[in-house]
Specification:
By secondary structure, the chain is mostly beta strands. It is about 0% helix and about 45% strand. The chain is built from no helices and 11 strands. The protein has strands at about 5, 10-15, 20-25, 35-40, 45-50, 60, 70-75, 80-85, 90-100, 115, 120-125. The strands form 2 sheets. Strands 2, 4, 5, 6, 9, 10 and 11 form a 7-stranded mixed beta sheet that branches. Strands 1-3-8-7 form a 4-stranded antiparallel beta sheet, with no helix packed on it. The termini are far apart.
Length: about 130
């Protein structure tokens, strides 16, 4: 089992940047593929980005491709989401999640993730 805590959210102007971090407890962090999801008010949760257990493969939603970068440091039990060129439509609660999917697969649906953080608010003003 793993516990996840996000940080780094806040208020930023359009065009700005934020870096979200997700700290994981436990000694088995490297076993998990990791992902970021977001949920805006009145909308369903949507996939943002995922990274395999070893960081060797990543995948992004089309809406963030080229602007967001997911990375992980297994020695520090952390996964990060660097968000650049932010837009008002990026406003949402961002959550990190851990998946037991192994190999080169980057899980992209909520059902593939077993553990979730509480989320951090990102607000982008126009």
């Amino acid at each position: 089992q793993v516990q996840l805590v996000e940080s780094g959210g806040g208020l930023v102007q359009a065009g700005g940047s934020l870096r979200l971090s997700c700290a994981a407890s436990g000694r088995t962090f490297s076993r998990y593929a990791m992902g970021w999801f977001r949920q805006a008010p009145g909308r369903e949760r949507e996939f943002v980005a995922a990274i395999t257990w070893d960081g060797g493969n990543t995948y992004y939603a089309d809406s963030v491709k080229g602007r967001f970068t997911i990375s992980r440091d297994n020695a520090k039990n952390t996964v990060c989401l660097q968000m650049n060129s932010l837009k008002p439509e990026d406003t949402a609660v961002y959550s990190c999640a851990a998946s037991e999917v192994r190999g080169w697969v980057t899980p992209r649906t909520s059902d593939e993730y077993a553990y979730w953080g509480q989320g951090t608010q990102v607000t982008v003003s126009s």
